[in-house]
Amino acid sequence: MSESLHAARAAAPGDLAVLRRRAAALARVPAGKRTEHTTPALLFRLADEVYAIDATIVLQVHVLRDMTPLAGARAPLFGITHWRGMVLTILDLREQLGVRPRGLTDLGRVIVVGDARQPFGILADAAQDFIDLDETKVRPLPADEAAGRALIRGITDDAVLVLDPQAVLRVGRSAATADDATRPRRLK
């Protein structure tokens, strides 16, 4: 490319400062009406239902590009992928949530949850938004729907199913332990 083209594309120093301020403002999570009764949450779609998960355990949401399915693995263990230089276990929680399984699409997302020591991914059809979840509006599931859905803490008036973050972390840790037990080991 010619130098004049590079010069035309280059932003002026003042423009860079403006762009940085705009980027910082856009990256900030709006305070909204956060009170002691609200929890930051990520909304995501799985099949035809919308779920909310406590955003404090969410490390990242990214597009599912490369994944290796684990043949013979029992649910919720689904596959593995590379994430930030490590192998990330991916779970498919549809069976635990009482959702009908279906194929993956190119819009699929992985919600990485846990902590930096032992993160794992959860399959989602789409990530929607971060919200301030009003805890006073989360009510228990009706008894006939609660059976077999131990990961769900409750439901909102908007029909958002709220996941129990501690139950999700327990399932993820037990699946990651099972994954470690089934991975081939190097011979000494």
Helix and strand topology:
Elements (H helix, E strand, L loop, with lengths): L2 H7 L3 H15 L10 E9 L2 E6 L3 E6 L4 E2 L7 E7 L2 E6 L2 H4 L11 E5 L6 E5 L1 E9 L8 H4 L5 E4 L4 E4 L1 H18 L6
Parallel strand pairs: 2-11, 6-8
Antiparallel strand pairs: 1-2, 1-9, 3-7, 4-5, 5-6, 7-8, 10-11
Give a quick summary of the entry:
The chain has 188 residues and is an alpha+beta fold. The protein is built from 5 helices and 11 strands.
Summary tags:
alpha+beta; disordered C terminus; 188 residues; 5-stranded mixed sheet; globular; 6-stranded mixed sheet
Characterise the protein shown here.
With 188 residues, this protein is an alpha+beta fold. The chain has a single domain (35-182), classed as CheA-289, Domain 4 (OB fold (Dihydrolipoamide Acetyltransferase, E2P), Beta Barrel). It is 26% helix and 34% strand. The protein has five helices and eleven strands. It has helices spanning 3-9, 13-27, 94-97, 143-146, 165-182; strands at residues 38-46, 49-54, 58-63, 68-69, 77-83, 86-91, 109-113, 120-124, 126-134, 152-155, 160-163. The strands form two sheets. It has a six-stranded mixed beta sheet with strand order 3-7-8-6-5-4. A five-stranded mixed beta sheet has the order 9-1-2-11-10. A hairpin with a 4-residue loop joins strand 10 (152-155) and strand 11. The protein is globular and about 65 Å long. The termini are far apart. The model is unreliable at 181-188 (pLDDT under 50).
